[in-house]
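A.,

Following up on our hallway conversation. Structure tokens first:
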């Protein structure tokens, strides 16, 4: 069965993303057409990118990067739950992405974003980054406003249109993850020594 990781891309105290990520996992898990698992970046602290060579050139010498690669490699696709900070991607999320290369390649990715403007600018940046890594980003996304979709700016209150957008995003993500499977078959990751 297709395996999808839901990556929570914020580690801030009092973050709103944990509610959003839990909603994504709970909603997605009811579908039955894929397995969904939450990956919280708080559980995977990575230093600022400290690789002696670019991840595309082979296995890491760093234990923390190898552990991160082992966590990401088994998944067929990803839902990235991201806030928008000052018009961009959270540094911790970009750093986690930058630590790997082959583990992302030929996999599908969808986005659930939140912010004053629904996190749209963070997703624009992530589409560029993910495309550069050889990921297929699905067109549909979920955009959540912290001004109108959180009660008192703290309690997420998903609406019907969020559910419809999430299901459309997941439909595409699962289909694309399956379609890309032949490209991933036999592909090496940076965990394998050349």
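Then the amino acids I'd put at each of the 194 positions:
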């Amino acid at each position: 069965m297709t395996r999808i990781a839901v990556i929570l891309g914020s580690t801030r105290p009092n973050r709103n993303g944990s509610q959003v990520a839990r909603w994504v996992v709970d909603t997605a898990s009811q579908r039955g057409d894929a397995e969904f698992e939450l990956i919280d970046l708080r559980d995977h602290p990575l230093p600022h990118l400290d690789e002696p060579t670019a991840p595309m050139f082979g296995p890491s010498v760093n234990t923390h990067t190898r552990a991160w690669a082992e966590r990401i490699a088994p998944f067929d696709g990803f839902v990235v739950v991201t806030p928008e900070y000052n018009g961009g991607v959270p540094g911790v999320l970009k750093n986690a992405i930058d630590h790997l290369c082959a583990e992302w390649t030929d996999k599908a990715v969808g986005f659930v974003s939140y912010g004053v403007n629904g996190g749209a600018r963070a997703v624009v940046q992530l589409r560029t980054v993910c495309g550069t890594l050889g990921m297929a980003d699905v067109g549909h996304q979920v955009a959540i406003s912290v001004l109108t979709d959180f009660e008192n700016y703290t309690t997420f209150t998903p609406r019907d249109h969020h559910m419809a957008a999430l299901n459309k995003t997941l439909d595409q993500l699962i289909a694309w993850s399956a379609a890309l499977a032949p490209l991933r078959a036999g592909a090496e990751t940076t965990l394998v020594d050349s």
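Strands lie at 3-8, 35-40, 77-83, 108-115, 136-145, 150-151, 155-156. Curious whether your intuition agrees with the design.

B.
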